[in-house]
Design goal:
Elements lengths: L39 E9 L12 E4 L5 E6 L5 E3 L6 E3 L9 E6 L6 E5 L8 E7 L13 E4 L12 E5 L4 E2 L12 E4 L4 E2 L15 E9 L2 E12 L5 E2 L1 E4 L6 E2 L3 E2 L3 H9 L10 E8 L26 E4 L9 E2 L9 E12 L5 E11 L6 E2 L7 E7 L2 E2 L6 E2 L7 E7 L7 E10 L2 E10 L3 E4 L9 E10 L16 E7 L3 E2 L2
Parallel strand pairs: 1-8, 7-31, 9-16, 19-25, 28-35
Antiparallel strand pairs: 1-2, 1-5, 3-4, 3-6, 6-7, 9-12, 10-11, 10-14, 11-13, 14-15, 15-17, 15-21, 18-22, 20-21, 20-23, 23-24, 24-34, 26-27, 26-29, 29-32, 30-31, 30-33, 33-34, 33-35
């Protein structure tokens, strides 16, 4: 009951474009000079897989990235130079860094440049990862008309209310269809699906991938599943008839949670400087996940303000009370996969004439068959003063960044009494009412050294700072271990202009 998403590197690592979001990554290295070989670090995929029967594999797999990425390294205040990425996913770390802070940078095709700034830890080789849910080798979608034609056995509804199609193995979710076609058969063009992690690909019957048709209804402020049937389908460029059909069923289950107490609403409101908890909106999702041992905040989901794990949502609520969530249907074929809950407390600030910047708190927790799930909003909120060089960008937008040629340092505070395992600092370019992510920095401490060459003259920028808790080895550069319970806190600076 596990699997994953996409992410990072010896540097940090949001996900690639085809992953719909950004992710984290990390590294480390060590060792004093000597007559032996140079210290070795690793950068690999972290893959959540299914087995030959289509069931979840217990632990993620770590595989070298191919084609080999370009890796650059240097001191934080100096230039970058290329390193050789070897076929086994390792690369040698120069002794010249000693015990001083250095930076690693890399970029995958169609992804953002990523940079990690770290201090070597003796005896702990770094291992940065790029998480992906689902296998790396994917069948291509056979054509523009590749359409599931799904007719459940048994007693399906004569008219579906709000059907959606999800798949395992490569992990996709369909878009809503309106108006809903009449009858028990539901046809859906797979090309319109959202690829939740990794590159585009098609489900394969031979790999025992599941194609699950789920009907949804509204229950108060929640959208919840009301019945489902699983299929196996060999896609063709046309109507694709399943090779296996399951009887329509409603396997009802309940879930309740705790941990979103009033103090967390106060914390979330304070991110935008408010004392009114009415500015906080909430969103709750529960569903099967490829894995509970992967980085949780890797995917950009269009309908969510903050990043989220890969799940197939069976219940999706706005402003719901976690102790009184409605019952929902759990597809029988998906029961071998772990169930995961995510709860977000979101706040936003709109720049005058510019974009709306969404921050807040997020927590994930596994959902057991019995007993409530417990959320821990443990990650420390990044706090003012946000200092970019000698310029504070905490309260006023469009301040001018002082001119200069050398690196400039961004520093920020950390919420009193709380901690973060590491931070992602994302540089966004402001484009009208939108922001465009340009570079991601991963750091263990609340300070980032930035090469001024990343800025374009007379352009407006803003930093998004994400703090993460639930990666206990990140402080020593090991990003291969994540706890089932994780949390994140997101804050934004004010905007500034490059001279």
């Amino acid at each position: 009951m596990r699997s994953a998403a996409l992410c990072l590197l010896a540097i940090v690592a949001p996900a690639c474009n085809w992953v719909l979001g950004l992710d984290p990554t990390q590294l480390v290295d060590a060792g004093p000079p000597g007559d032996g070989p140079l210290p070795v670090a690793r950068l690999t995929w972290m893959v959540a897989l299914t087995d030959a029967q289509g069931m979840p594999v217990a632990l993620p797999d770590f595989r070298p990235i191919a084609p080999a990425p370009t890796i650059m390294a240097g001191r934080v205040d100096g230039p970058l130079a290329p390193l050789e990425y070897r076929d086994d996913g390792t690369f040698e770390v120069p002794y010249a860094f000693g015990a001083s802070k250095y930076r690693f940078a890399y970029q995958l095709p169609n992804d953002l440049p990523r940079e990690m700034q770290w201090t070597p830890t003796e005896g702990r080789p770094a291992h940065a990862v790029v998480p992906v849910s689902g296998r790396l080798e994917r069948a291509s979608i056979p054509g523009p008309n590749a359409t599931f034609s799904l007719t459940p056995l048994g007693s399906p509804p004569a008219q579906h209310r709000a059907p959606r199609v999800v798949t395992t193995g490569i992990w996709t979710e369909s878009q809503p269809v309106f108006p809903v076609p009449a009858g028990a058969t539901f046809n859906y063009n797979f090309n319109s699906s959202i690829q939740l992690s990794g590159p585009p690909g098609a489900p394969e019957s031979a790999k025992r991938d599941l194609v699950v048709l789920i009907d949804f209804g509204n229950n108060g402020t929640c959208r919840s599943s009301e019945g489902s049937a699983a299929f196996r389908v060999d896609l063709v460029d046309g109507l694709s008839i399943p090779t296996m059909s399951e009887t329509w069923a409603f396997a009802g289950r309940g879930a309740t949670g705790s941990g979103d107490g009033a103090e967390n609403y106060v914390r979330a409101a304070g991110i935008i400087g408010s004392t009114q908890t009415s500015v906080v909106t909430t969103r709750t999702r529960i569903g099967p996940t490829p894995s509970t041992t992967m980085p949780a905040f890797t995917e950009r989901v269009a309908s969510l303000g903050l990043r989220a794990p890969v799940i197939l949502p069976l219940i999706d609520c706005t402003g719901a009370n976690l102790s009184t969530l409605p019952a929902f249907g759990e597809p029988i074929s998906l029961q071998p996969f772990d169930m995961l809950a995510i709860h977000q407390l979101t706040v936003s600030r709109t720049v005058s004439g510019g974009p709306t910047l969404e921050g807040g708190l997020s927590a994930v927790a596994p959902v057991a068959d019995a007993g409530p799930f417990v959320l821990e909003f443990a990650a420390a909120i990044p706090t003012p003063p946000f200092m970019l060089g000698d310029r504070e960008i905490s309260t006023t937008d469009q301040l001018q960044l002082p001119a200069g040629t050398g690196p400039v340092v961004l520093s920020f505070g950390v919420e009193l009494g709380r901690q973060a395992n590491y931070y992602d600092v994302v540089l966004h370019r402001v484009a009208g009412t939108s922001t465009i992510a340009e570079r991601v920095y991963t750091v263990a401490e609340p300070t980032v050294t930035i090469d001024r060459t990343v800025f374009t003259t007379a352009t407006e920028y803003v930093f998004e700072i994400r703090a993460y808790q639930g990666a206990p080895e990140a402080a020593v550069g090991d990003f291969t271990r994540y706890l089932p319970t994780q949390s994140s806190a997101v804050a934004w600076t004010h905007t500034f202009r490059a001279p």
